[in-house]
Amino acid sequence: MSTTPQSDTDNEDISTVDLVESRADAHTSSNVTHIMSQQQKSRRRLIGKDPDPRTQPPSGGKSEEEELTKHDESKGPIKLSHIYPIHAVSRGSILSRESTTPTPSFVGFRNLAMIVLGKLQYSSFFAVSNLRLVIENYSKYGVLIRFARLGISQKDILYGIFLTATIPLHLFIAIVIERLVAIPTVNYVASLSESEDKKRSTPKMERKGASMLILRPKPKYMWRLIVLLHSVNAMACLWVTTVVVYNSIYHPLIGTACEFHAVIVCLKVASFALTNRDLRESMLNSQPVPAIYNSAPYPKNLTLKNLSYFWWAPTLVYQPVYPRSPSFRPLFFVKRILEMVGLSFLIWFLSAQYAVPTLENSLVHFHSLQFMGIMERLMKLASISMAIWLAGFFCIFQSGLNALAEVMRFGDRAFYDDWWNSKSVGEYWRLWNKPVTNYFRRHIYVPLVRRGWKSATASVMVFFVSAVLHELVVGVPTHNVIGVAFSSMILQIPLMQVTAPLEKMHGPTSGLIGNCIFWFSFFIGQPLGVLLYYFAWNVSMNKVKMVVS
């Protein structure tokens, strides 16, 4: 254990701020060099100058897993799993103008068009055919957009407001728990510093045969209690919301929003607890922490201001310090809000005008188990659901998260990579939703690998947790926990195994085959899940009726 800075022997209580700042000053510049080199490597991989370690084994340098699980032989193991700075530099989203990376390729969308159209040269025929469907839809149903069709009751709105107001309280419960354990941690380090001072001031002859240095016990004796309290707090966030949504909220839209909010807060509570645990460990063992945290070292980071920023920041991963943008840009923010409004209206229009009639007309085929009729409705719904999903992706990840990041001046806006060009199903899951990917990688995958788990087994555990959360977000609001969302996530594992070799292949067709497999599974799987949950929801609500197709 390294020696702490000296203090006066007559000072019984060492200041927390002085203690932490002196420890932060002891960090070398190697932390900064390491962080910047990692970000530079990631950027070079993104623009294609360096091979991507996700698709190729590293030839000389260490992979990201090795960097996160590295050991310093001179100081013993360094526990960086939960304190590794996922957000270290400011970056723009790759579809934004301020992005420093070149404009990504959109060849993946061309492959999607080939799947939808059959052949790309028939696009003009497809456009005319879709126009015919638009006219047919209008002739058959007219304009279906009505505010009254939302069907949201006052009871659902009141319960939604109640959950929206109470769910964030679990974050503030988490900081109370952390402050409780911070007190004995600081006292232990203070007593250690005092003992070291006495040791230096005592002659060697007086120290022989006597044990003068009586330290406070390490505060790990209460860490199990802290783990229990954090676990109960995080699970209570999910449990209370799930019970209220399942039993008291009828409309799936309100229920989904509340359940999604609870999942986000639950994950943030867990990240906050795990990160502060490793910060405590680093403080007790005099281990270095990333240099980016120097401006808010432990326990100086345990403030309401710091927690409130994490609450609203567009990330699931807690860090005491995040990279910040220089200033708030009102014009940029207004553009993102207008994009959200326009895309939300488009999603509403496509859902009400095209998706809902298709879903309603599918009930008769499900009720009579007409397989061909179900397949016909599935194919008709596939194109609509794909358009809705793509609009939703841009609305949330490009417009929504960038608008929130602008308000919070959050610098690292790499919320996604070019997932549409994925060569395999596994690469898609690593690229499309970076906030969730970063979370599972930092708090589940890497810690399991450090404990000796195989990479494949750790990945299975990640997808199992993700499958449970998907079932909660989809099954609970529809009042049908039937396992479809869970199974669809678990089935991604064999798809990843099948398409993984395509990532390592070189040639003009290797990327095309893997990308088409990814798009086809997505094109069919998503609308199938929507059909099944819609039918189950109508059955549970006794709304199944015969509809003439």
Mean pLDDT rating: 78
Strand content: under 5%
The low-confidence parts are 1-78, 119-125, 205-216
Total strands: the figure is 2
The SS-based structural class is mainly alpha
The H-and-E topology, N to C, reads as: HHHEEHHHHHHHHHHHHHHHH
The gyration radius over C-alpha positions equals 27 Å
Largest sheet, in brief, is:
2 strands, antiparallel
**Widest sheet, order of strands:** 1-2
Number of helices: 19
Oligomer: single chain
Shape: globular
Helix content: 55-70%
- Calculate the terminal CA-CA distance, rounded to whole Å: 75 Å
Topology:
Elements: H1 16-25, H2 30-46, H3 64-68, E1 71-72, E2 76-77, H4 107-117, H5 123-141, H6 154-166, H7 169-201, H8 204-207, H9 223-248, H10 252-284, H11 304-312, H12 330-367, H13 371-408, H14 425-431, H15 434-450, H16 455-475, H17 484-490, H18 492-504, H19 510-540
Antiparallel strand pairs: 1-2
Helix pairs in contact: 4-19, 6-9, 6-10, 7-9, 7-10, 9-10, 10-16, 12-13, 13-19, 15-16, 16-17
Tell me what you see in this structure:
By secondary structure, this protein is mostly helical. It is about 65% helix and about 0% strand. Strands 1-2 form a two-stranded antiparallel sheet. Strand 1 (about 70) and strand 2 form a beta hairpin. Helix 6 runs parallel beside helix 10 (about 250-285). The relative contact order is 0.12. Mean pLDDT is about 80; it is low at about 1-80, about 120-125 and about 205-215.
Label this structure with key terms:
single chain, mainly alpha
Concise structural overview:
Strand 1 (71-72) and strand 2 (76-77) form a beta hairpin. A two-stranded antiparallel sheet has the order 1-2.
